[in-house]
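Title: [Solved] Ribosomal RNA-processing protein 7 3D structure

Original question kept below for reference.
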Amino acid sequence: MPSVPAVIGEFSVLPISVPPLPSFPRHVIHYLYVRRNTPKIPTATDARSLFLTNVPVDSTEAHLRALFASLVGAGRFESATFEDERKDAHSQSQSQSPIDVAQPAHVARLLQAHSSKKRKREGDDEAERAREEEAAARLPSTWTRPLRRSGSTAVVLLADEKSVEQVLRAIAKTHKTNKYPAWGGSDHLPEGRVPPLGSLWLRAHNRLSYPDREALQATVDAFSALFARREQEAAEVAKRLRNEPDEDGFVTVTRGGRAAPASRTEAEEAKRKMLDRNEKKKEELTNFYRFQLRERKKAEQAELLKRFEDDRRKLEALRVKRGKFVPDA
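Solution (posted by the thread starter after getting help):
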């Protein structure tokens, strides 16, 4: 086997031994690249976390826990966050839930426009009930664990900064001893075995692809009920918007047309507010830059000098005219 450098750039190279499997009866060496975690936006746990890239496609937190336990012993590893999990969390915080995607476009737009007001009125119990409804409306998963993208990354959180140093020293030691930790081993985990590799979890996926008919019917019923309820909510919102002008004085054209025109008084009031807002924006943007302030002051001084000269000429003309005036005897 060709020699591999212990360090490439800022990454420490960790060779891991992948044991032969019935589906692929050959011994393989896979390389993980590890460095201290230095994200663009620092967090409080960066000093005791490691950034991993080129993680195996069948990685789970239990596999990484077993790997780090074989390097520095049990009790040092706290958690692992994979690249796809970080992206999913970010996208869910900025988008709708998977249930909302199945809604008609007009329903999604109306509910999204009024979701902030609705969330303020809802309490914790109402929000919890909504989450339970969405969970019941989701189809059961057909995978016991996800399949990672090739070459993906993960962030591992350790117990303390000392654990980070110990892991990096242990990685350097593997290159000297040529004893590489085994991938998928559970000898260093007292709590039990890690999820199986190879075809076993694919076999479980094949079994989960055919869920129980009653469970599947219950999920479809829950989805249909949630779908109908959200359409009803959207219809009520659309009905309320038919007679309410917006801040620009316009009435929203909703599906199904309008029942009556907007009030002229409300429309004029909304138009007045719009004009006031535009005027305020102009005032805020006027003389925004420093050079604009200087130019404005120069223009004001020039205007004052011009007025002074005009007044002086007028006064001089009056004096001349008064000197030529001869009163009648």
